[in-house]
Amino acid sequence: MKEEVLGHLVAVITIIIWGATYVSTKLLLVYLSPIEILFYRFLLAYLVLLLIYPKFKTLTNIREEFLFLGAGFTGGMLFFLIENIALKYTTAANVGLLVSISPILTALMAYYFIGVEKLSKKFLLGSILAIVGVFLVIFNGEFNLQLNIFGDVLALLAAIVWACYSIILRKIGKTHNYLYVTRKTFFYGLVTLLPILYIYGIEFKIEKLLSYSVLPNILYLSLGASLLGFIMWNIAINRLGVVKASTYIYLVPFITIVIARIILNEKLSHFSLLGGVLILMGLYITEYGFDKIRIPNSLKNKAFREKL
Question: Hey, where are the domains in the chain?
Answer without folding.
Answer: 2-307
